[in-house]
Amino acid sequence: MFINAIPDASAMEKKEKTLGITVKKENLAEWYPEIVVKAEMADYSPVKGCMIVRPNAYAIWQKIQDYFNPVIKKHGVKNAYFPLFVPESFFHKEAKHAEGFSPEVAWVGNKDEGEERLAVRPTSETIIADSFAKWVRSWRDLPLKINQWANVVRWETNQTRLFLRTREFLWQEGHCVYENEADCEKDVLLILDEYAKLAEDLLAIPSIKGVKTDKEKFAGAKRTYTFESLMPDGRALQMGTSHNLGQGFMEAFGVKFLGKDEKEHVPWYNSWGITTRLIGAAIMTHGDDKGMVMPPRVAPLQAVIVPILFEDSKQKVLDTVRNIKHDLEAHHYDVHLDDREEYSPGWKFNEWELKGVPLRIELGPKDLEKHQCVIVRRDTGKKQFINLANLKDAIKTSLEEMHNDMLAKARKFLESNLAEARTMDDLAARIKQKKMVLVPFCGEAGCEDYIKERTEGAVSRCIPFGKKAEKGAKCVQCGKDATAMAYFAKAY
Amino acid sequence: MFINAIPDASAMEKKEKTLGITVKKENLAEWYPEIVVKAEMADYSPVKGCMIVRPNAYAIWQKIQDYFNPVIKKHGVKNAYFPLFVPESFFHKEAKHAEGFSPEVAWVGNKDEGEERLAVRPTSETIIADSFAKWVRSWRDLPLKINQWANVVRWETNQTRLFLRTREFLWQEGHCVYENEADCEKDVLLILDEYAKLAEDLLAIPSIKGVKTDKEKFAGAKRTYTFESLMPDGRALQMGTSHNLGQGFMEAFGVKFLGKDEKEHVPWYNSWGITTRLIGAAIMTHGDDKGMVMPPRVAPLQAVIVPILFEDSKQKVLDTVRNIKHDLEAHHYDVHLDDREEYSPGWKFNEWELKGVPLRIELGPKDLEKHQCVIVRRDTGKKQFINLANLKDAIKTSLEEMHNDMLAKARKFLESNLAEARTMDDLAARIKQKKMVLVPFCGEAGCEDYIKERTEGAVSRCIPFGKKAEKGAKCVQCGKDATAMAYFAKAY
Question: How far apart are CA B56 and CA A193, in angstroms?
Answer without folding.
Answer: 28
